[in-house]
Amino acid sequence: MKSLLIVISTLITLTGGVRAQKPVVVTEPDVFTDAPDVDVTYIERTPRYAAYTLSYDAPGKSGLGVPTSPKTGKVMSATENAAMQRWPKVGEEVTYTAHFINKGQRDYPAFPYKWLLDGKVIQAGNHKDVLPSSVESTETIRMTWQKGQHTLEFQADPLTTLADRFPANNRLAITTDAMTFIWAVDKVTYEGFNKVRNFTGSYSFEDWCNWHVQRMNELIRISPSAIQPNGGGHTRVRADRIVVLDDLEKEWEPLGGPFGKLAAGFDGSWPFGRNPDVRMWAARPDWGLIHEWGHQLGLTDEYALDRAASVNLVPDANGNPLLLGRLSNLTGYMMHGHGPVMFSPECSAALEIQYRDGVRRRGYYGDYYYDTPKQTTIKVLDNSGKPVPDTALTFYQASDETGGVFRNPVFSVKTAVNGEAVLPNRPAPQHTTDHGFTLHPNPFGKINVVGGNAVMFIKVEARGQTDYAWMDITELNMAFWEGRHDKATFTKQTHIPPAGAPTAPRNLRAQVDESGVRLTWEGKGPFNVYRAAPDRAEYTPVVKATNAIAFAEPLPGGGLYHYAVTTAGQKESAFSNVAGAMKLVDPWGIAISANGSRFVRDRGFEQTVLQKPDGSFVGRIGSVHYHFEGSDDLALDAKGRIYCAKDGDGYSPQPGFRILNPEANMIVDHRADAGDGPQDFRKPAGIDVTKDGVFFITDRELGRVSVWKFVERNATEADARFLYTIGEKGEGDGQFQSPIKPLFDAAAKRLYVSDSGANRIVVFAWEGDIESAAPKYVTSWAPGLNKPLGMALDRQGRVVVADSGNSRVLTIDANGAIVDTWSEGLKEPRGVSVTPDGTIVVVDGARKQVLTRK
After folding, report:
1. pLDDT grade for 33, boundaries at 50, 70 and 90
2. 781: which of 91, 308, 755, 816 fits an S-S bond (Cβ 3.0–4.6 Å)?
3. Three-state secondary structure call for residue 352
4. What does the alpha-carbon distance between residue 751 and residue 763 come to, in Å, rounded to a whole number?
5. DSSP string of 76-90, one letter each residue
6. pLDDT tens column, 63-118
7. Average pLDDT over the chain, rounded to whole?
8. Which residues contact 144 (CB under 8 A, 6 or more apart)?
9. Angle between helical axes of 473-481 and 345-356 (0-180°, round to 10)
10. What is the rounded CA–CA span in Å between residue 175 and residue 559?
11. Distances (CA, A) of 605 to 1, 377, 559, 583
């Protein structure tokens, strides 16, 4: 007797529910362990006809899918495309071939079989040959093609008269007009699946894949939409060919011929790469696989309709970027993420429309975004639910042309007395996809089928308040599919106050420390306090009708939260000014721009943190893909460019530096493997820059400062030129133990370097041009310093240093004497800067806070 322990960790229901289960021990007699197993793996249909092969670069049709010849790859005329046969003709003879393999360890004897169409037996016979272990064989049936959805099933040993280890895989049913997939699997992976018991209970790669086919078909069937509110979608998928390849990387691409798998007659394809240990793979459903197969059906990534806060560069009243992002309301569905979840109403309707319009073959992608009403209207409601006339609506759109960011308005409208405004239909080429959808003028213009320009950001201004809203293409699509072809009105609920509302509170301030956020404001209560989720403008009340003029709470989590306060009552006022608050993680460096904005380098974030002069946060600027985590310090030049010393991170261990433009877009990325050469780095720490782009970087491991010059090649290209190094590792004059922050004094032509390892500040001076030669050592200051870190110059040219080990900030004159000490409230000062009015601004790493003292 052999036993097998099967641990069932989850039970996944059709509705996506998950319930924990206790382990179940299953004991199998030897007769079942060693029994044969006939496994019906797939059913293919021939002849095959090409799906849509497309060009998105046809003359005059850039970005629009235009059919090409599956034989030559050339763009076809409308007449040529209409003549293309993509399905069998009604009455045409087609052949279905059932493939089956003996997955068991013993020979499978001759067996009876049946073919069933729509549940009725249409042919019965006997497979006369013995099927040895691991051998594949086939049976075929010829029949005339019938249009419509029909179920064809092949059953091996229908009455289960023979010993069979897994009778459940003796039959396979397909939908005749299903979209067809070709799968290729690396032989090593395939053999691994055939040796490991998968979560369906068998030892079969094909069974594992076919479970995903069945589940995908069921999810499509139950997913509701505007045109089938109770579900019932008809699109289906199936495997039409499965091939096992010795070298998938070499053999996969040529398998479909010169113009790919679509030209070869398949609607989709998927390769399963080499994995010598498939136990974890086989043990559970791969929901991401169903998501990816959704793309094969032309469905887009709905997370492409999300917008990161960092791409919203629309300026606020003070010129700072709003940095308000959004999460698509289609989150939680299969094409936004993946899991035991349904397809969204958007995807479900798109699939059903294409099924009803002749079961369109695949190849097109995202063209269902084209279905929009002839007229789009926005209706604005105030915080009491009443229409708001004379509202100024300004629309912004991110696209490839804008570099993927929201910055400049694309159009503006005003609401009429009924609170409604008709949006302009912006030009778009008239383009109809075959058996699909028609692009025409609409508010989004030429719609990108990947969703790149399918989201609008809306500034809403009325009655002395500015609010914000979003609109994406799926709102228009679903309105169209609900039957609103000529006109659709979309209501936007806002926080605009009603006429006659009381005065809004004033001077809302947010102070953040390690304990959370504390809000203070001015006004006459009662008050409502609102909070918006990280990086978004979706405000919900956290306190109602309080008479206090302060509120504190732990910050709910990572990210930027926005707060606003209103005067409560029968009518609610407009918002106060909005204050941003975020919890810092591991803050270090700081630099202050000419307008007082604070740029904070936090090792815990991939981006630079921007803070207003009043202490409220604007948010994180720049792309997360630049990966600044692990970077300590930053500096600004006279043009607002951001310089960062860059240590390694989780993606790349290479040290160096990066330079960004004032909008935090990368313009120079200088990194290389760690080394000891003159231009190399090992552990870059601090950075400073002159007004014209000469910058200094300390390396605490190499014990030196390297000097570089920013070189602007043209409007879009830049580089950096190495000049020389200063100092070396050691304890003597002009040497360093662990240099941290370089500080350049242009007036005195001096360079100060905080040497944390030696608890001193090392001073150098130039006699000539700083670009021509290294400075000479002058002196060292060590007035009781303990782990000095960040430094800055005050208005008198004195050095302000974060004496971190002593929990204080010192001001030191030109002779090295301490002239001022600030210790109250400090724990671990790191970065330091000084504003033009003399305010000292300090980053405290222990308090995770930016502190100031005049």
Report:
1. low
2. 816
3. helix
4. 6
5. PPHHHHHH---SPPT
6. 999 999 999 999 999 999 999 999 999 999 999 999 999 999 999 999 999 999 99
7. 93
8. 90, 91, 92, 93, 94
9. 50
10. 48
11. 57, 40, 10, 11
